[in-house]
Specification:
Structural class of chain B: alpha/beta
Number of domains of chain A: 1
Largest interface: A-B, 29 and 33 residues
Helix content of chain B: 25-40%
Order of helices and strands of chain A: HHHHHHHHHHHHHHHH
Order of helices and strands of chain B: EEEHEEHEHHHEHEHEEHEHEEHEHH
Number of helices of chain B: 12
Oligomer: heterodimer
Strand order of the largest sheet of chain B: 6-7-8-3-9-10
CATH class of the largest domain in chain B: Alpha Beta
Structural class of chain A: mainly alpha
Radius of gyration of chain A: 23 Å
Radius of gyration of chain B: 24 Å
Shape of chain B: globular
Strand content of chain B: 25-35%
Largest sheet of chain B: 6 strands, mixed
Shape of chain A: globular
CATH architecture of the largest domain in chain B: 3-Layer(aba) Sandwich
CATH topology of the largest domain in chain B: Rossmann fold
Number of domains of chain B: 2
Number of helices of chain A: 16
Chain lengths: ~325, ~325
């Protein structure tokens, strides 16, 4: 039975069934991936951004360590997770630092991905080699994503290790799991920014323009979006006088909805939930809903369930940015310059 | 000579339109295996667009292109495997060394590491870049970049090489080397070479056949002699003779040579118009009269002249000054 199905599949996709062909298909992609990785690791730009992230990581850890004892006094559970979420000495927490700086990692890795190739005349030479055209953009995205994942996980591991040395309390399984999910989520978040900057690098001819465009997006998403959400919600559901009684719920729902369009908000919300088992809901909770609830922490699985939509949305945003970039690049007319 | 009559590159009705502008207009071209073909034309004539279509980088609006029996539009991968393309103003990654750039190209072509290193060493030596191979490409001069471009093309051992303006911006010595290299590629290794250029002199030196490209159309195609034959004005031959210490007596003498239609003089430079090729008779006569010839050149057989005439046909205004000068010289003595 299975054999006949396999045969049928093979017959309907003859190109994929041939092993030699299969191998050949990935030659260009692999070569590009390796080259892009090497380029990133050796580039000064990447080292600069790495230094910045490491610096802020340690600064936030220092802040967290200095104030962790007072935090622990309030409630002694999940101390290890507090390393990431506690801010102290007016230094923001690790999580909020990454939420702000993450976009810059993506930006630095992707803003000149395509247009610099075009401007230096290497794109024509590259495309005249026996590789598929999408290998170029796929290779660039995958190499950037790989770098991001490695970097974020190494950062998280480093902060955990130093934190462990400093406080001497090992993380429980659940805490470790939560940290891994947090790091994964962070990587996806940064990948979104990578996708966005690759998109602009396809759309804009000059690297400087695409970098500015990404920075503009970053500003809009992190700062203006929440302002805008408040204004729009207030315009749709006014809260003056009596109206407040009827509109309160709709107002908050609307504001939340608009805010969630921003990956920054989405990320912050999800990360707060996963790193803080005390968070029981990400939406609006009425007092009647809370009535009779047993006070306690949310299990890991339930926290994951809460942020699942966030993760899906984030992946979808990343994919949308990348797919637009992909289509634009594939349809791009290679012209005589 | 490795030239056979097998057609290597063939296009039929190849057309490319950018909006309303037609860059290439129904191009029919056949290039034989092992020959060097020069695609000539002014800037914007559609040469680069043609090369891009042949390498499958750009899709034609209509028409077909085949290289070695493979469809350039349907099977670009197969075509790209046998075609080496050196773009106009070839670019490399400036932060990588020449060797690393070549290594990357080798990897893209799926070469084994060992084979790739050997090929790179051989090619660097051949293009005279052995010492510069470990320098960053950012430090290369234009000529070195161009030579690295040739090495880059040869990595995949292509049977067809397409070069877009390969001689642009290179010093005379570099040019000489490059031309020798290209000739070697074709004559001893039997590769088919297609060169697009607007530098007539270089093309004339190496090309077996040339095609003149004006406004997206191929206006003429053939060997340089054939083209000269086709375009000869009024069946007239024009010979430029320079003698040491010329005088009016010589003008008169030349006019008396049978077959000579006109003689113009400017200092010791004479332009002799005739109805057929009478170079031998002219030389004999001049020598017999005790003049010594410093140079003799048949005009109208070099590409410059052919090019000019085709442009006049196509309604272009190429180098009118030059032409006027010749005419003036010509009519003064009539």
């Amino acid at each position: 039975m299975t054999q006949t199905i396999a045969k049928k599949l093979k017959n309907s996709f003859p190109a994929a069934a041939e092993p030699g062909n299969h191998h050949e298909k990935y030659i260009g992609l692999r070569a590009l991936f390796h080259k892009e990785m090497a380029d990133h690791i050796r580039s000064r730009r990447f080292l600069l951004i790495l230094a910045l992230v490491v610096l802020t990581g340690f600064a936030s850890l220092y802040g967290a360590l200095s104030s962790i004892s007072s935090v622990v006094e309030d409630g002694g559970d999940f101390i290890f997770l507090k390393l990431f979420t506690t801010s102290g000495n007016s230094i923001p927490s690790f999580v909020s630092f990454i939420a702000l700086l993450g976009p810059f990692i993506g930006l630095a890795l992707g803003f000149d991905a395509i247009n610099s190739e075009e401007n230096s005349g290497t794109l024509n030479r590259l495309l005249s080699q026996p590789i598929y055209r999408d290998s170029v953009i796929n290779g660039k995205f995958l190499a950037g994503a790989a770098i991001i994942f490695v970097m974020i996980f190494v950062m998280g591991g480093m902060v955990s290790a130093i934190g462990l040395l400093a406080i001497g309390i090992p993380p429980s399984f659940e805490e470790a799991g939560r940290i891994v999910v947090f790091l994964f989520f962070t990587s996806v978040y940064v990948c979104f920014w990578l996708g966005l900057s690759i998109l602009f690098s396809v759309l804009c001819r000059h690297a400087a323009t695409s970098a500015l465009a990404v920075i503009a997006c970053w500003l809009v998403f992190t700062i203006f979006m929440s302002l805008l959400a408040g204004i729009i919600a207030a315009a749709l559901y006014p809260l003056d006088g009596y109206q407040a009684l009827f509109n309160m719920m709709d107002y908050y729902k609307c504001e939340l909805f608009i805010n969630r369009l921003s990956p920054y908000y989405l990320y912050s919300e999800a990360v707060t939930t996963i790193l803080n088992p005390g968070v029981r809901s990400v939406g609006i909770v009425t007092t009647s809903q809370l009535e009779g609830a047993v006070a306690g922490y949310l299990p890991f699985g339930q926290s994951l369930l809460l942020i699942w939509p966030h993760l899906v949305a984030m992946c979808a945003m990343t994919l949308i940015a990348f797919v637009i970039a992909y289509l634009k690049f594939m349809r791009r007319e290679i012209r005589a310059n | 000579m490795a030239q056979t009559n097998k057609i290597m590159i063939q296009t039929t009705g190849l057309t490319k339109k950018y909006g309303t502008k037609t860059a290439v207009d129904h191009l029919d071209l056949s290039i034989f295996s092992g020959e060097i073909f020069g695609l000539l034309g002014p800037n914007g004539a559609g040469k680069t667009t043609t090369t891009l279509m042949l390498t499958g980088l750009t899709e034609p609006t209509e028409g077909t292109a085949f290289i070695d029996g493979r469809d350039c539009i349907r099977e670009p991968m197969e075509v790209k495997k046998i075609v080496g393309y050196m773009p106009d103003n070839v670019g490399f990654y400036p932060d990588m060394t020449g060797r690393e750039n070549l290594r990357f190209t080798a990897a893209l072509n799926g070469l084994e590491k060992q084979a790739a290193e050997e090929a790179i060493d051989r090619l660097l030596e051949r293009t005279g870049l052995t010492e510069a191979g470990n320098q960053k490409v950012g430090t290369y001069s234009r000529g070195m970049r161009q030579r690295l471009g040739v090495a880059d093309v040869l990595i995949k051992d292509p049977s067809v090489i397409i070069m877009d303006e390969p001689t642009l911006g290179i010093d005379p010595e570099g040019m000489r080397e490059l031309i020798a290299l290209i000739r070697d590629l074709s004559k001893t290794e039997g590769r088919t070479v297609l060169i697009s250029s607007h530098q007539l002199y270089q093309v004339q030196q190496i090309c077996d056949r040339v095609g003149l490209f004006v406004g997206g159309k191929l206006t003429a195609c053939g060997t340089i002699e054939e083209l000269a034959e086709q375009t000869r004005e009024d069946n007239q031959y024009l010979t430029e003779i320079r003698v040491i210490s010329g005088d009016n007596r010589l003008t008169q003498l030349l006019k008396d040579v049978p077959g000579v239609l006109s003689v113009g003089r400017e200092g010791s430079r004479y332009m002799v118009g005739s109805s057929q090729d009478i170079t031998d008779i002219l030389v004999d006569r001049i020598r017999a009269e005790g003049y010594s010839i410093s140079s003799l050149r048949p005009c109208g057989n070099d590409l410059d002249e052919i090019y000019r005439r085709y442009f006049e046909k196509a309604g272009h205004d190429y180098d009118t000054n030059n032409r006027k000068k010749v005419k003036k010289l010509f009519s003064r003595s009539r």
